[in-house]
Amino acid sequence: MRPWSSNELPVAVTVPRPSPPDGPVDATDADAAITGLYGAHYHFLVRIAVLLGHDAATAEELVQDSFAATCADMHLARNTEEAVSYLWAAVVSRSRWEFRRGVAGQNVPERAPDMPIAEHSEFALLERSEVMAALRKLPGRQREVVVLRYYGDLSEEQIAMTMGITIGAVRRLASRAMVTLRYVLERAS
């Protein structure tokens, strides 16, 4: 049983997994593949970065950096399935790095009127929700597991690969996170 009702959570969005191209891919096709990946995954990855605890501007920067790194590796650009997995891992890794720097979560504005994301109201709602407040109280790895599982709709195996940990560690982190979320949300109500 989840510690929150379904009307508190944003609608889960699954990440479409494009099929890899058949045969060799030239640089033009690689550019087209990156453009397609960007169009299909950018906003969703920004949403994941926001859920990991970043303000919208930092989330966009993390995702942009992840796409830039993907573009720099033509091998990744030629294999869209591998590129999507890399993007997930890069966003989580860069997110973790931002927290270590101590930049994330500081001075997060209540409202950013010049926010370039079309879903401004969705992000504002997330930042004000009790669930988001509870997520921000979780330790980093637990938050990552919850976000990737319940918002990113990744399997335990995909989460383990994205975070570079074992499936057993994913299960332990998820279990601990659920106990903490239940406690925090019950106290808030």
Structural class: mainly alpha
Number of domains: 2
State the helicity in percent bands: 55-70%
User: Which consecutive residue ranges, at least 5 long each, have pLDDT under 50?
Assistant: 1-25, 104-119
Distance between the termini: 17 Å
- Report the major sheet: none
Oligomer: single chain
N-to-C series of helices and strands: HHHHHHHHH
Describe the structure.
There is one protein chain. 33% of the residues are buried. The model is unreliable at 1-25 and 104-119 (pLDDT under 50). With 189 residues, the chain is mostly helical. The protein is globular, with a radius of gyration of 17 Å. The protein contains nine helices and no strands. 68% of the residues lie in helices and 0% in strands. It has two domains: 13-114; 129-189, Winged helix-like DNA-binding domain superfamily/Winged helix DNA-binding domain (Arc Repressor Mutant, subunit A, Orthogonal Bundle). Helix 1 packs antiparallel against helix 2, helix 4 crosses helix 8 and helix 6 crosses helix 9 (167-188). The longest helix has 25 residues, at 27-51.
